[in-house]
Amino acid sequence: MCRYLKDVLGDTLIPEKTENSNVEHPPPSRTQPLPGPNSLRRRSSQLPPPARSPPRHAPLREPGCCKRTMNIEDRKFSDSNEEEQETLLPFLEEEEKEDQAGQCSDMKECWREHQLDEELVDGGKMGNKVTSEGAGDKSESSIDELTTCQLRIKMLEKQLDYVDIEIQKEKEADNVAAMFRLQAAHRRLCTELEDEKDFELKIALTLKENMLEMWRIETEQGKYEVLHKQLQKDEEELESQYQEKAEARIRKEKIAALQAEENQLSRKKKEEEVQKEHEERHKKMLEEAKKNHEKAVCFLRKSMARIHEENAKEEVKTQEHMERRIQAVLSLKNSITSNREKLKALQAWNKAMAFEAKKEELKMREAILAEGGNVAKEIFLHKRLLQHEREKQAFREQQKSRKIEIVSRILQEKASICKQKNRQSCTKASKSGGKRKDSLLWRRKTWHYIEKTCEHPAGAISQLRCSPAEEQADGEKTAFVGDDVLCESVEDEKEKDKILAEPEFPGLWSQECDWHKVSNKDMDTKQLALSVMKKEISEKKMEEFQTTVSHKQIVSGHEPKGRTFYSKPSYIHFKDFDVGKIYKKKIVLTNASYSVNFCRLVGISEWLKDFISIQFEPPGKMSPGMSCEVGVTFKPAIDENLEGEVMFMAQTGSFSVPLKCTAKTCILALDKVLIDFGTHVVGETISRTINLTNTGALGTRFKVQASAGDSSTCRATAKSSPGNTVLKAQFELSEQLTQGALNFRSDLDTDNACNLMEPSPEETPREIMLGKVTEGEIGPFSSVKLQIIFIPAIPGAVQAEFVIVFDNSDCKPLCFSAIGVSIDVPVWVPNPNIDLKICMYDQLYQDCVVIQSRAKAPLRLKFEVCKELSKHMELLPKTGYIQAQSSFTVQLKFLPRHSLPQDAGSYFNEETSVLEVPVTILIADKTKQVNFTVHAIVTTYELEINPAEIDFGYCTIYEAVQTNVTLTNKSILPQEFGFVGLPEFVEIQPNDGFGVLLPLESLTLDIIFKANKAKEYSFELTCKSESNRRFKLSCRAVGVHPPLELSHSLVQFAATALNDVSTATLYVMNSHVSVNHFTHAVPRIGNGEVAPVGPTSFEFHVPEDCPVTVTPSVGTVLPGKKSLIQVSFRPTLSDQLIREEAARRLCRAAATGAEIQKKKKDEKRDGKKSNIPITRQQSSGQFVKDGSSKYLSSSSSSEQPESKEIKPDSEAYMAARAFLMRNFRGRFEKYIIPCFIASGDIDEKRGSENLTCSPYNTLYLELHCPAVAPSVVVTSDHGKNTVSFGDVAVGHTIIKQVTIQNISPEKLELGFSVLNPSGPFLLVRAVRILEPGENKALIISFSPNENKWFFEALDIRTAQKNLTLSITGRGVMPSIVCSVEEVLDMGYVLAREKTTFTFKIQNTSTLTLQYSIQLDSLSPTRSKDQQRLPSFLTSSLQRTEIVGTQNYSGLSVFSIFPTQGEIVAGKSQDFVVTFSPDHESLYYSDRLKVVLFGKKIAHVIQLKGAAREHPMFVEGGIPLDVPIESLAVTLPVSSQEALKEEPQEPVKSILLVLEHIEGENSLLPAKTELRVGAIQTAQFASKKNVEFSFDNLSLLQKKGFTVEFVKGTIDRGQVKCISVSWVPPADLDTTDPVIETALLTLKGDVKESYRILCMAKVVSACAPSN
User: pTM, whole model, 2 decimals?
Assistant: First the structure.
């Protein structure tokens, strides 16, 4: 409730709006996608003009708002009516004056009286001010609006009057155009006047409501007046309490200040003590530095001498090496020349042998010829015999080499088997490290100890003490009583080593190996093989026996790894034992296997049997996790260390527990080998201690003495050196001493002997000496402190060496050294190196420098700091006096400034930030100075925030914007940080913005901004460091309230299988129903304009590669409504992933193929090598190398396939996709889908212009998409989930099988979705149950009934996941195009000859067509058709017979090829039609049908042809013969042949009908044609052409007939057209037709005559022709 009042009051106090500056930068944590081509856009020109009514109806308005509206409207009106406005200016001025004078005086007076009343009643209170100001602002704004509205009404009335006058004037002047314009203005003014009057009433009502509200607020203020007074009293009391607390706090602070002063005094005392310690350290450092310098010089000289010696040795070695190389080159040259000579001799010998072979062959030929034999046959047989002998010899050598190779392999295998056996047998004794030899010694010592301790009779002792050889033999017997197996294994190993023999050919085995020779060199290989086979059989039997004893445990498919029994403790250790006592220990064995197991004791190590006894009762079968106890008793008889193991046997194999027995020993050590006294002044006494520690259980006596070669301490004159060189020398010396403390004495003695002048021992006093304790007893597990005293007497470096000797012979002497430096400076600094540690810039650091004096008089000291650092460091006082043999304290102040790196120069290392400042102490009247060094590491305290300014951009109230900043610690000290005073809309992670930064560490912080309302944000984030430093981070953002909102901004899909679909629903809601921002939050961008109320459109923009679909992606939501959105997730495998897997599989296949080829080549090469003699092994090896190099070059040249080259329909791609789907392990992905918003209805703007959207109003939908492997996959067709039937002819049915497999480990019950019952797809056979790994087939049929695409989805449902099969198919209507349309006329052919014609049929459909060609003459239904009414009974025009004259022979006149087949889509097929008549006829005909798929007739062609006995014919007119052969008069063949020689009578008549049309044009004659042709044939070669002529033309000409050609000649294969025309004569009777006859004669091989009947008649133009 309080938050609601706060929002309401805050909205009422919002100041006047200002124009919002658009920030073009997008939010840093997300990308704002620009509106694409499908985005909603709206042009600014299509925006409607601002409505006037909404601002008038607003209940509350800011001052001046109405005036701005009126000015805008006036401006619009003046733009359209410029002439009228010029004339109305005087009226407007008068109206304003009158209105200001007195029309609203009553309302103003009332308001003034009300204000005076308010001032009298406590107008200065804060609560009254807040409430009254709000009501006053509302009333003032309403009054201003009312006055403005009344002024507008007056102005409009004046304008109406003026317009009426103008209309009357224009009417009188008959200016129609001006009158229409004025009438339109009059109407517009009337409407505006009515609107203003309505607005005036609304303002008056609003004013009354505001007045009532104001009085109500005043009454409420009166109620709370008493509370206000009480509040004032409480505030006064609270202030008095604050004052009292402040006084108490001041008192406490004074007490704390006093305590701080006391603490400071105590701190000063502590600092003085520390200063003294610093002086002592300084003395030590000076002494160490001098001594180190001297040692460094000595070591340098030694090292240089060693380097020279090594260089000389290396030169000698290089010379020797060069000589050896020269000798090798010379020998190589000599061998090359000798080999060349041998090669030449060998070539000459080969030529001589070849020459001799030819001579022998010639002799053999002559001998064979002399005997009369077959030379070729005998020579061929002789060559074959020689070749056979050579092959036989090569085979023998090959067999021999194979035998040798087999023997060598057998021996090698035998040796490896023996080694394995020896390793297995020696594992039990391997841990003790050669205990086989030691066991003899242990046994001997045990018996000797028993002899000494026990009392034996003399005889027994004499018997025991025998000769050494016998004693050794007895010892061996006793030692190997229980170790027979071990001895046998060792002997067998020796025997096996002796079996190895040398090879028959020395080149086979390396001569470097030292093989034992066999006594019998001709040992048979068969015996060796038999012995090896026998041993292999015995080894197999032993392995079988072991497998029966121990076997693997496999429980639930898992084989246990590791040990099956664990012991607690893991090993048995008897520590620090005493001889004669008994020690017992107990261990627990636990069964750690997966099943029941047993455990039995095997034994212990052989050398432990005399001392160790085991108490163990086999527990029988032990369940997993059960344990048993084992007791171990140790009775030591000798004081020796023992090691071994206790061996057990379990069901799964043997295991052992290590056992160790250690006697009491002395373990002595020194805590340091070098005592460095440092630098001290002559006359002082310094004491140091060194600890001698015994960590063993046995004590001993010790004695400390000086080293034998160290009769006196060594000394060197001390030299003054700067502080840096002293430190470096000391560091080098300490390193060298720690590396070799034992070599220190000898090196130092030699160096001093060479370079220094030592005084005699008598003259030099001993400065480093031992303390009181020089010898004594050190007990077990104790330590002794030894004191070393240094009393410097002479300035210089001193060193001494000491040795600690022990009574125990097993303890080696321990050596240690002591060094020190003595100086004679009267003033020194105990701490020559003052370390200020790590310092920060601009911080003051102080320290005390203590100066000691050994002088007997006071000294004046002056302190100087180098000039470079005088600004940053000073010593106070700069000059002082130090008393005799006392100390002086100087205050060191260090204030590093940021200019330190530039001022310090070489004293400051910028990389390491290390500062070394030399400080000098000048002593009055002394030339020698005292130096000390101040060390400090200077660092900064800065924390760097990158970037220093963050612009979150535009952020909606439904989301959070995240950006990253890097916080870097520039200091080398860790710093704590924290972001304090964060606003409620900002969050910093991790740890809420608090943490610790290590030195120079950078930390990435997430700044999360979530706008709570629409406004402009500008704020600063403060990061506070541990040193109370504040670092600012400026932030800017713009809050956006979108017009729409999503019901869910996060959608979490369930686990979805590959190629399956998961769906979720959400709503897009439009809750913007009012622009009143006082009652609720309105959508806007920052402080910009409020979004208009109305339909709002949206669009979801899904990325390209996102497996998510949003439906609908575009829509419009009305105010107060919501739209349902469906989001679908369909996971698939990416194409790139499949291509990469396919490329890998192809590479593996190529590699496998290459290996197979290589093996084949190697096998062929081995076969070739077997045929080569042993003497040619070198050449064969060269051949192998060449072959391998060729293979490698060929394999390397093969290119690997790239993933981009793999096609999606290839087998590799399909196999890779199936493999990835089966091995898919799941994935989880997140997607963010932007939703763009625009004001307006997208349906209204569709087709014209799009809407525009602001990227700042974008909503975001976050999707969590987990994908898992499917339970059921398709195994057929390379795992495709699409069943494509392709193109199928309409009316046909195709069946396909789809094989599915259960790849899950569970049994699945399948369900199927219902296909469209009226569709073409049908699930013929379904599968109900699938066992794990089982394959079953689904049968689906496709029967299209239309020419279109068909698509359906078949869902295979399981309990949790679904598999969707996409079934597609296309029904195609078959269509073809034929080159012959309806009739194919073959023309005239001589009888018993053939002619062909080729036509083409093209398949214009998208599927392959099966066709068959059918002729009606060969139809099985032709006999039925012949039973119908004969066609000759009808007229010639009504004859419909299809099959005409046929051959007498019974063969078909027309034939076609091919008669059936297939035509591929888009291709064509040629068909050949053959016309072969066997007798003369003019009426050959048939019908050809093209039938597709045996059902549909796609095309019909009418075949026609004519046959003649003679090569000439006449065409045209109307034939007067009978077309049916059965009715024609035919002569026998014999009579026809007899009449060929006689002149033929005209047997054929042709009727020519000519019709002259009357009335059109009397000059145009009626025309017709006759065609006379000659047939092209080879039978009548003598006759080249055909002649024709007309007779009796005179009668035709009289009656008006005209023939174009009377005579003529026609070539073979040509046709002559003869035109016959008729013009009616003037005396013609048009009622009767004109008939006349002419004779046409043709001469070719025979003479033929035709009677031409010409019939002409006159017909009218309107009369139809018959």
Answer: 0.41
